[in-house]
Design goal:
Elements: H1 2-46, H2 52-71, H3 76-95, H4 99-114
Length: 117
C-alpha cells in the first residue's frame, strides 16, 4: 500500500513539473511573438510609401504591442535582438509592395496580442 502511495506522489510530482515547464515555454514563445509584433508594426508604420489604411493599422498594432510588451515585462534588449530577423522579412515585403501580406501579418499580430487578455 505504501508503495502505491509513493508511486502516486511521484506521478503527481512528475506531471506538475512537466506542466510547469510547458507553461514557461509557451510563455517564452508568446513573449517572442509580441516582440516580433513590436518590430513589425514599427517598421511598417515608419516606412513612408505605405498606403494610409495600412499605416494606421500598423500604428494601432504598434500601440497595442507596446502595451502588451510592457505588461509582459519584455525588455528593450529582447525586442532589439529579434529586430534583424523581422527587419529582413518586412523590408522584402515593402520592396515588393506586398501590402496584402503586410496586412495579413498585422492581423496575425492582433490575434497574438489578444492572447492572455
Amino acid at each position: 500500500m505504501v508503495r502505491y502511495i509513493k508511486l502516486i506522489f511521484l506521478i503527481v510530482y512528475l506531471f506538475s513539473s512537466f506542466y510547469k515547464n510547458v507553461f514557461s515555454l509557451e510563455s517564452a514563445v508568446h513573449r517572442a511573438e509580441v516582440a516580433k509584433c513590436v518590430n513589425l508594426s514599427s517598421l511598417i508604420y515608419n516606412y513612408n510609401p505605405i498606403p494610409e489604411n495600412l499605416s494606421s493599422l500598423a500604428l494601432n498594432v504598434h500601440k497595442l504591442s507596446l502595451i502588451k510588451a510592457e505588461k509582459l515585462e519584455i525588455s528593450e534588449l529582447t525586442i532589439k535582438e529579434i529586430k534583424p530577423e523581422t527587419e529582413k522579412k518586412v523590408m522584402l515585403l515593402i520592396k515588393n509592395k506586398n501590402n496584402s501580406r503586410m496586412k495579413e501579418l498585422l492581423g496575425y499580430c492582433i490575434q497574438t496580442l489578444r492572447i492572455g487578455n
